[in-house]
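ugh ok fine here u go
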Amino acid sequence: MSDMDLVVVGAAGRMGQTLIRVIQSTPGARVSAALERPGSPAIGQDSGELAGIGTIGVAITDDPLPAFAKAHGVLDFSVPAVSVEFAGYAAQARIVHVIGTTGCSPEDEAKIAAAARHATVVKSGNMSLGVNLLAVLVEQAAKALDPEDFDIEILEMHHRGKVDAPSGTALLLGEAAAAGREIALADNSVRSRDGHTGARKSGTLGFATLRGGSVVGDHSVILAGSGERITLSHHAEDRTIFARGAVRAALWARERKPGLYSMRDVLGLVP
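structure:
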């Protein structure tokens, strides 16, 4: 089989540059196009040079349509509006769309799911192996521990530039905990506490958000009981882990039928 031609969205950003480096070092994959927003000063530059790996002959452009037309897949860590738009293009082109974008609304999710009827979409709040293994452990722990005896709190910290909260990874872990307890996260999550809030309601899933510095991503799920506390944690030290996961997802999805998949599917963690 020929190498998988991949489009990188946001090629001039930190994640985009990391994706370019990882793709070009992965057997069976290559960068076929690099996209940036209209007006970006990076347009016209060689994407490989910008990523620090030398010329690869792929200039950064702001025109997605010809890029999608000649590609096998697209790697997209952008913003919800762009991901929804590009999901439509991927559906038209019948190609793989790997989405690491966080902060999507229910309406955005519905549009992406609709696009997945024609495109093979892998969407996850986190593409790393470690986080997805953590989610499985969180689900098992939440299932095993009585909600009347153990409270669950999810703590996350990211760099000062992150714009959405809680993080997509925190929500992924929250969904895992909710699945373990067979409850709906939306109806049982507590996102903020301020002032005289009263006692903690039993069975709820709490979120706490920290922002500062250059932290790539720290997540802890705390299961607090009477006289004991269990903490399950993951600390991301390098964005390369997300890029490697995204490229792995794209290569896996190339052989799959259209549909909406998660990293659990990619990693074989689905029961």
